Amino acid sequence: MSKRLSMCDSNEYTNSDAFLHFARKLRAKIANDPSSMHVYLKDLYVEVRATKSRVESKKAATNCLPDLVTSHSTTSLFSSSSRFVGDDEQPSTSNGLQAESDTKTENRIKRLEKLLRACSKKIKSLEERELSLDDMDDDDSDYVRIDKYKKKSVLIFKKLCQLTGRETKTGRITERKFRYDGSRFQAINLGITKLVNRSKQFPDFCDVLEVVNTCNESENLHLRPSTVEHLATDIFRDIGEELKNRRITDYRENFGCHLTDGYDEKYDPAEGNEEMEVKLKENKKTAELKDRKSVV
C-alpha cells in the first residue's frame, strides 16, 4: 500500500479533501466492523491503484513538452510583445475558457456521483426485499430491476472514470493479466501468455497448437510433431484449469450483496439460537415441498 501511495502526487491526491474524506470513511467502517478490515483495505488499494494512471498520464503530458519551451532562446516567443500571443487579452480569454470547461466537468462529475449513489441506494433497497416463486415469472420483478440498476451503475462508473481520468478496473482477479509458465520453454510460455491476454478468453486448442508450432520453428526447439501435440494438449489443460480457478475465486469474492458483507464461514448464527434453528428447519421443509411441486 505504501508503494501505491508513493506513486501518487501527494499534493494533488493523498493530501486532497476527496482522499482524506475517503480515508476517514474507511477508518470509521473498520472501527465499526474490525472483522472486515481486509475488505475495506482492498477498497483503499483499488482507489489508489485507479488513481495511478491519472498521475502517470499527467506526468507523461508534462514530460512531453518540447525542450524549446524551457530554453532561454524562446523566452521572447511567450512575451507580451510577441506576435504569437497577439495581445494581453488572448491568454486571459484562454484561461477563462479553460476554467469554464473545468467547471462544467466538475458539475457533470457531481451529477454522475449523485446518480450513482441513488442507484446504489435503490439496489440495496431491492436486495432487502423477499422474492417469491410467483415473482420469478414477472418481467419486472425485483430481481430484474436489480440487474437493470447494476448495468446502469456500470455505465455511470465508466463515464466517471472517463471524466476523472482513472482506470475502470476494480481489482477483480479476472481483470488481472494472465501469466503462463507451465512449460520448460520460455518462448512458448511467453507466446501462450500473449495469446490469452490478447483474446481475454479461453483459447481454442488449434490456437494453442499454432503457438507451440510457431515457437518450435522460430526458436529451433527441434520438437517432434508428436511431442508438439502432446505439449499443446498439456498447455491447453493448464490454461483451462487456471482460468477456471480464477473464475471460482472471483465468484467467491464477489458473490452476494451488502447483506452478506459480514458473512463468516466459521460462524453459524443458528448455533445457540434454538428459535432460529427451528425456523431454518421449517424453511427447509417448505422449500423442499415447493421444489417437488414445481418439478411435477
Architecture blueprint of SSEs:
Layout: H1 2-6, H2 10-14, H3 17-32, H4 37-63, H5 67-70, H6 89-127, H7 142-164, H8 186-199, H9 205-218, H10 225-254, H11 274-295
Helix pairs in contact: 3-4, 6-7, 8-9, 9-10
Distance between the termini: 56 Å
Helix content: 55-70%
Number of helices: 11
Main β-sheet: number of strands, strand sense, barrel status? none
**What proportion of the residues form beta strands (DSSP E)?**
under 5%
Global outline: extended
Mean pLDDT: 78
Topology as a string of helices (H) and strands (E): HHHHHHHHHHH
Low-confidence stretches: 64-88
Strand runs, count: 0
Radius of gyration: 28 Å
Structural class: mainly alpha
Description:
With 296 residues, the protein is an all-alpha fold. 67% of the residues lie in helices and 0% in strands. It contains 11 helices and no strands. The longest helix has 39 residues. It is extended, with a radius of gyration of 28 Å.
Describe the structure using short key phrases:
about 65% helix; mainly alpha; about 300 residues; 11 helices; single chain; extended
Entry summary:
Helix 3 runs antiparallel to helix 4 (about 35-65) and helix 6 (about 90-125) runs antiparallel to helix 7 (about 140-165). The chain has helices at about 1-5, 10-15, 15-30, 35-65, 65-70, 90-125, 140-165, 185-200, 205-220, 225-255, 275-295. It has eleven helices and no strands.
